[in-house]
Amino acid sequence: xxxxxxxRKKGRVEIIPxxxxxxxxxxxxxxxxxxxxxxxxxxxxLPSSSEAKxxxxxxxxLNILKGGSVExxxxxxxxxxxxxxxxxxxxxxxxxxxxxxxxxxxxxDFVHVMDACQKAGVTAIGIATKxx
Length: 132
What we know:
By secondary structure, this protein is α/β, with parallel strands linked by helices. It is 34% helix and 19% strand. It has helices at residues 15-36, 79-87, 107-120; strands spanning 48-49, 60-64, 70-72, 75-77, 96-101, 124-127, 130-131.
């Protein structure tokens, strides 16, 4: 009687754990990339403050130029357009806005932008300054 040969087992590559690792890496790289994207700003002469603190990354950075015009992501906005844009963000109660105004901007223009933000329902408003 001849000895029986067992069929040779083939090596298998487990694909499910590999898919899990790939999805984890994809999510990791997406989250890191989103944190690296910065908002473009303008070169403004910001007022300085000895009490300036780092704020969390806001949803909106509004720039008030010397002429009193408002820009968001390089696009000029009127105050009524600003209200519409802020309301369109979704949950306005959690919308964060930082206002960057040049030193030469009259305080009244700054107040107009703050009023527009409050009309839209925004309560988290930060003011951009330079640290001394």
